[in-house]
Specification:
two-stranded antiparallel ribbon, globular, eight-stranded mixed β-sheet, 7 helices, alpha/beta
C-alpha cells in the first residue's frame, strides 16, 4: 500500500525555520521530521511514498537526490584523469519515493487530487508531514479493511488547539466542530487510510480536505475512526520542535520503531 505525505504547506506558525525550508524538512535529531515519519511507516513494511510538495519543494527533492551519496562509502578517483566514482557500501533505505510538485498555493484536498495518476486506483495511506506517532500502522490498515467504508481517520487525544470529532461508540464519525475550552475528546491525528473513490469528494486545488470532503464523507456514513491512545505529537510551533528534540535525545522516542 502506498503512503501519501502532505508536505506542501507554508508552515506559518514555525517561521523561525520554515522561512528557509518546508516544515517537513525541519530537523529532529539531525534528520527531517519527514524522514522520521517515513521510517515509522517503513518499520511496518510500507516503503512506497508519494510526497505532495509545494512551498520550497526543491529542498525536498534535493534531500532525496543527495541521499544516495550521503549514505554511502564512496571513492572519488581523480588520478590520471580517471574521474571515477566507486561506491563501496550503500546504507540508503529500501524506499521508492515519488516527489510531486502539487502547486504553491494548493490546499490539502487539491494536493491529494493532483497525485491521482500515481495511486494506480488502489487504496492508500495518507498523513501530514509534521506529526509523529507510535501508532500500529498494520493494525490501522487491518481496521480499515474490516469495516468496508471509504475512509479511516486516526483520532487521538491532545491539547485542544484543533477542531474536535464526534463519533459513535462503534467508531463511525458523525460530525466535526470547533474546539471548546471544556473539550477533552478526540481530534484528527492524520494517519488515514483512503479508498481512491475519496478523490471524487474533492473538487480541485482550492478544496481543503479537512472541510467539505470529510464532512461529505461523514454525511454519507463513509468515515470511520481508528482510535489511538498512545503517543502522538505534531510539530506546529518551535515549542513543539524543542519538545520532540528532547524526547529524541532521551533515547526513548516512542515513534522510533526501527533499529
Amino acid at each position: 500500500m502506498k503512503v501519501v505525505l502532505l508536505a506542501g504547506g507554508f508552515g506559518t506558525r514555525i517561521t523561525e525555520e520554515s522561512h528557509l525550508k518546508p516544515k517537513p524538512m525541519i530537523e529532529i535529531g539531525g534528520m527531517p521530521i519527514l524522514w522520521h515519519i517515513m521510517k515509522s511507516y517503513s518499520a511496518y513494511g510500507y516503503n512506497e511514498f508519494i510526497i505532495c510538495c509545494g512551498y520550497k519543494q526543491y529542498v525536498i527533492k534535493d534531500f532525496f537526490n543527495e541521499c544516495f551519496i550521503r549514505n554511502s562509502d564512496i571513492t572519488f578517483d581523480f588520478t590520471d584523469k580517471a574521474n571515477k566514482i566507486k561506491v563501496h557500501k550503500n546504507f540508503t533505505e529500501k524506499w521508492r519515493v515519488t516527489v510531486v510538485d502539487t502547486g504553491l498555493n494548493t490546499m490539502t484536498g487539491g494536493r491529494i487530487k493532483r497525485i491521482k495518476p500515481y495511486l494506480d486506483g488502489e487504496p492508500f495511506m495518507m498523513t501530514y508531514g509534521d506529526g509523529v506517532s507510535d501508532i500500529d500502522l498494520n493494525a490501522l490498515e487491518a481496521f480499515h479493511r474490516s469495516h468496508g467504508k471509504l475512509a479511516t481517520m486516526t483520532v487521538v487525544n491532545a491539547s485542544q488547539r484543533f477542531g474536535v470529532i464526534n463519533m459513535t461508540p462503534g467508531g463511525q464519525i458523525t460530525s466535526f466542530r470547533e474546539k471548546k475550552n471544556i473539550d477533552g475528546i478526540p481530534i484528527n491525528g492524520g494517519y488515514m487510510v483512503l479508498d481512491p473513490r475519496v478523490l471524487d469528494y474533492i473538487d480541485g486545488d482550492s478544496t481543503i480536505f479537512e472541510k467539505e470532503p470529510l464532512e461529505r464523507l461523514v454525511g454519507d456514513g463513509q468515515l470511520m475512526a481508528y482510535r489511538h491512545d498512545g503517543f502522538w505529537q505534531c510539530m506546529d510551533t518551535m515549542r513543539d520542535k524543542e519538545e520532540l528534540e528532547l524526547i529524541w535525545n532521551s533515547g526513548k522516542a516512542p515513534w522510533k520503531k526501527w533499529d
